[in-house]
Amino acid sequence: MSLDPALEGAIRQAVREQGQKPALAEKMIAWLEGLGQGGMSATDGDGFYARTMAAVSAEEANDAD
Amino acid sequence: MRINISGWSSRGLRCPDVDIDLRQADGTPFHAAFLQMPNGTGKTTTLELLKATLSGEAVNWDDTKVRSFLRRGATNPSGQFIIKLLVDGKPLTFELDLDFEHGRATCATTRPGSGGIGKGWAPPPEMRRFLARSFLDLFIFNGELANALFEDRSSAENAVDALCQLYLLEEVAGEADDRWQKRATSVVGPKTSGALATLQTRRTELRARKVALQRTRKKAVADMADAKAASDALEVKINAKATGLDRDNSDLADARTAEATANADVKQAVTSLHKAMRLPIALDPSIGRSLTNWKDHLEELKLPEATSAQFFTDLLRKTDCICGTPMTDVMREQIGAMSRHVLSSKENGQLNIIKTDIEKYELTGEEGSSHDSMQRALATLGEARRTQLECRQTVRALRRKVLDEGGDEVKEWERQQAALDASYAENEALVASIDDPGLSLPSGVPIHSLAKIERDLKDLDDKITEATDTVELRAKTNVIQAIVKRAEELARRTIKDELLKACNARLGEILADDPIELEAIDGHLRLVGQERGSEAQTLSVGYTFLMTLLERGENRFPLLVDSPVGKMDGRVRRQVGKLIPGLCDQFVTFVINTERADFVPAVEKSAKNTSHLTFFRKTPGNARLMTNLPAGRYIETDTGVIVDDEGYFDTFDMEVEGL
């Protein structure tokens, strides 16, 4: 199940504004799509979370902090 | 997620008993299902039961509310309402049981694919938000919905969130925050960047201290070597100066030899004393006496039965005893009887070992011999130490004599040598403090121990590693939450703008004769230049908003509408009816005969397939409706009749309504 195009676009823009790499937007979109489909297992949830957090640039994150 | 209604059934309730099946022969729901129900058939009751069962709120009803669903004059003890859904094609059933005797409502949920029948209201977790009452009101409604969209300050916003999946952003942010909280509670060290910086500063200081101490040590060792070399050189010069004093020099050499021997004797005496002191009973005779006393109070010597019983069994079979005496019957009887007294559990084996060990030391000599031995070692050491001191004094005196006879130059060398030796000792103490393990240093004083600094650095490194991970996770979680928040703002703004344009374009078509325009979707719907439209306008705007929203949403819900056209005129009915099937997977509507015109044909034209059900209550006043029922196309219960026939639907009660 795909996301609303406006939602996808908003995530990409928000990721850009935070100074993060486009890959993070893709990981977040994949996570949201997984949640939208429902029936997500704990393992799936762990995977989406880990991949998303790994895509966050620590340097930019620390600057933001 | 795609949710469809397969049907519902009611038994023993205020509304007539009925089984409504909204499925085609292949099990999929009809695209559009018309349920014609004259006034008084229970439309409002059915709508209320549908919402209360789907949302699970019925279980909170009080006894008065529960009993209000009992048909007037009826005495049945219970009633039941069942609604069957298809969730992404999989069946899900909610069953509401009303106990009229006790005034209680209970729910059960059936999910054939995952666990079968379960007590209580238990939909799949991902479905719960779509079964909230506020959300159900958007898709199971009557003409009041449109009013809610204009009046309820969050209804339109909620609809946007649900259908455009903006709620997923909250789930991601919530998940990230939950995981951070879990991490934060499991970590004992610093969790903030400020605390991490403090740790890093401390580590930098310790590293600098370590480098400084290493340099200091290196220099001290070099200075010690220099001092020793210079001191030795002076000693050579002093000795050379004294070469003329042969006799004194010879005495000094002898004295130094005696001093070396005395030093060796002291060392030997210390080693012997250490060895003697290792025996506790050597320290004081009272220790030995106490141990013996304790041993004597232990149980008498016994043998562990598990390993020793066989010994006696075998002995009793022998012709001779182990002492060599020929075995008699009396001896055998005595040994058999006594063996029971000396055999015991395995714990006795350990006691035996202890007792034997104590006896071993008791047997090494007479009482107190170990103590005497230690006392002798102590006396030897005292003697050796006295000899050593005497030798040292002799060496010092002879050397003094040699130096005194050497003149001022030798005295100057001696002064220099003393200074060098002092420097050596000072550096030696410094190196010793740097090499000290530093296990019990007072706090608040500069650390000299390199080992202590190494330990502190390792501890700091561990803390910094943990804190860095934690702080980084906090920072990353903040980034995710900031992105989610911003994305929600951006998405909501974009979606609202697009919805507004699409709604207004559609309203221009639907209400061409009576134009109306949406100004904003700001929590609720707002019209341009007017607070409210007519009833027909309001209903049209509500439909248009929901239709436009449904059109773009990825989640699919059934639209179940009671009295779908209200006071719309024929043209608007046709416009709305034409659009509805294109915007939802399943449209179910309760109509009365006066709503058929214009609306039903318009829906039929656009829908892929349709179902036409007519349902009425069995009462004396409705007896005329029973006269022309189509054969084989109806089901009759004690309280009502349901007819599945399009022709009957189209002509139902026409003469009564005067059409």
CATH domain topology of the domain at 1-141 and 562-569 and 606-659 in chain B:
Rossmann fold
Question: Could you say which overall geometry of chain A the principal axes of the C-alpha atoms support?
Answer: flat
CATH level 1 class label of the domain at 1-141 and 562-569 and 606-659 in chain B: Alpha Beta
pLDDT averaged residue by residue of chain B:
85
What would you say the CATH architecture of the domain at 1-141 and 562-569 and 606-659 in chain B is? Answer: 3-Layer(aba) Sandwich
Derived structural class of chain A: mainly alpha
| Largest interface (CB < 8 Å) | A-B, 36 and 42 residues
Oligomer: heterodimer
Shape of chain B: elongated
Q: Keyphrases for this structure?
A:
heterodimer; A: 65 residues; mainly alpha; 0% strand; B: 659 residues; alpha/beta; Rossmann fold; 6-stranded antiparallel beta sheet; 21 helices
Could you please describe the fold and organization of this structure?
By secondary structure, chain A is mainly alpha-helical. Chain A has one domain. Helices cover 77% and strands 0% of the residues of chain A. Chain A has 4 helices and no strands. The longest helix of chain A has 16 residues, at 22-37. Chain B is an alpha/beta fold. Among the domains of chain B are: 1-141 and 562-569 and 606-659, 3-Layer(aba) Sandwich (Rossmann fold), CATH 3.40.50.300; 204-278 and 372-435, no CATH class; 282-351, no CATH class. In chain B, helix 7 runs antiparallel to helix 15 (408-435) and helix 18 packs parallel to helix 19. Chain B starts with a strand and ends with a helix. Classes of the chains: A mainly alpha (65), B alpha/beta (659). At the A-B interface, helix 1, helix 2, helix 3 and helix 4 of A face helix 6 and helix 16 of B.
